[in-house]
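During the reporting period the student researcher (J.K.) took over the structure-prediction task from the postdoctoral fellow and processed the backlog of single-chain submissions. One of the processed entries is reproduced below for the supervisory committee.
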Amino acid sequence: MAGTTNDEWTATVLVVDDNAENRALAEAVLQAEGYRVLLASGGEEGVAAFERERPDCVLLDVRMPGVDGFAACARMRALEGGAEVPVVFLTAQRDLDTFDAAQNSGADDFLTKPVRPAELALRVQAAVRLRRLGSELREHYALIRRQRDDLLRLQLQKEQLMAFVVHDLKNPVNSVDLQAQLLQRIPDLPARALRPIARIREEARLQLSLILNLLDISKSEEGRLEPAVQAVDLQALAAEVVTALELRAADCGVGLRAEIAVETVHADAELLRRVLENLTENAIRHAPEDSVVRLSAAYDGEAVVLRVVDAGAGIPEADRARVFERFVQLGGEAAPIRAGRGLGLTFCKLAVEAHGGTIVVEDVSPGAAFRIVLPGARGV
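J.K. obtained the following structure tokens:
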């Protein structure tokens, strides 16, 4: 793709952004594609450049001091010939209100920062080519664009709904756990009440884990799941996992055993703890009575290898990649249902990959082993 066609026509792209680094990145990407690039550091300057140069496409930042992107776009559209020039909005805010405001001000496209260079080049290419299409092709493109915008709007609505759900559910679940903790502290509490209270806390923990999984999967889709890597006492973290799940394991008649030959690992402690909890809870659910679920960790050069192993039915080789998909149920008449009850394994895969690691399923006959490799995670 290039901005220069066979007849040597060179498209001009106007970049309007108050951030010098963003302007420099857009300029470098677009010049490499053969475009003539004009730069403006604000909305007022951008409108003046638009009126003077009549560009073939405009990249327009939304949030700028003075004349913002919405106002600048409206003023450009009001100029002679301005309605025909494609405008691509750039914004760091991925929300429904910003999207609707961009559409209402006359935007042709909508990109969320940080923008990937390849995506930026392709979107500009599409916008420039659109301007040269005939009227019939323009109508077809306009229909496709409306359908795309409708899909994007639905996606933004879904993300907004998920954010509300996560926020609104976390507080009551935390409140349930807090009230259960207060009950546990009552002096002379009858012994028969201790186990039901512990069960309440266990169920609250599981509900909170599901909520946090939803949140982190949403973050991953937006490229915002970034581990806060630090030195983590892996033996202490594994002990926390065992303590959190020992009641559930006991109810299922399953033993838990941690075999941690690693003292320190470089990782995000909270994400890694939840990964191990999800995998261990999954293993308990599928382990036969009177068996043992094993959580282990060992060094492999500079990498740390973690395994969660159960003695259950195992997972057929053809299905091992699918267990990490959302809401997948495996099995049927020939085999018991295995894994995929919700989003736990999906979260595990995303969290491990955010660390630069890998997670796979191994057959240990009988049973299954989830094997995690975290490269460069060995502590000193």
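The committee noted the following: The longest strand covers residues 292-300.
J.K. will present the remaining backlog at the next meeting.
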